[in-house]
Design goal:
The chain is of the alpha+beta class and 166 residues long. It has a 4-stranded antiparallel β-sheet with strand order 2-3-1-4, covered by helices on one side. Strand 2 and strand 3 form a beta hairpin. Helix 3 crosses helix 4.
Length: 166
């Protein structure tokens, strides 16, 4: 983590451009990437490897269209635990980590402890998942459910705004 923060301070305009392109076009060829950032292939490849080694690029992946699988339901759930001991958080996180329908989970500050994103085929599957979670005795005090009715915005990180000031 510290290494990647230090590396982020050393990013130049070409590094940022490489990252911006890869966020949108992860399958771009190395030759095309080099041309887009006005570098020859070898220096571009070296920059790419440096960004990977520094942990700035964590992985590569595809954005999957849920609608191609038929109707899907995305649900966000705020969860508050009964107790706030380290062991309670660890137990909850361990159980959630094993549930594939929970595609994302964040520990959050404020009134709730966690925010989870859940993807299922039907609301009944969501209810079954919540019932199973409640039955696992992971210390859930209360939860609030928010069903997504339509996606509004999903964009790559605004890298220029996130860079540390020089």
């Amino acid at each position: 983590m510290v290494e990647s923060r230090i590396a982020a301070r050393r990013l130049d305009a070409r590094d940022v451009r490489i990252l911006e392109i890869l966020q949108r076009e992860g399958r771009i060829s190395k030759a095309a990437l080099a041309a887009r950032v006005n570098l020859s292939a070898t220096p571009c490849w070296e920059r790419l490897q440096r960004l990977e080694r520094a942990g700035i690029i964590e992985s590569y992946g595809a954005q999957i269209s849920l609608k191609t699988f038929g109707p899907m339901v995305i649900v966000f759930v705020e969860i508050e635990l009964d107790s706030h001991r380290k062991a309670d958080f660890q137990r909850f996180e361990q159980v959630v980590g094993k549930m594939p329908e929970i595609t994302e989970c964040w520990a959050i500050g404020g009134g709730m402890d966690y925010l989870c994103k859940i993807v299922v085929r039907h609301l009944a599957e969501y209810q079954d998942l919540i019932d199973a979670l409640l039955g696992r005795d992971v210390g859930i005090k209360r939860y609030y459910t928010y069903v997504v009715t339509a996606p509004v915005k999903q964009t790559p990180l605004p890298l220029q705004r996130l860079l540390p000031e020089a």
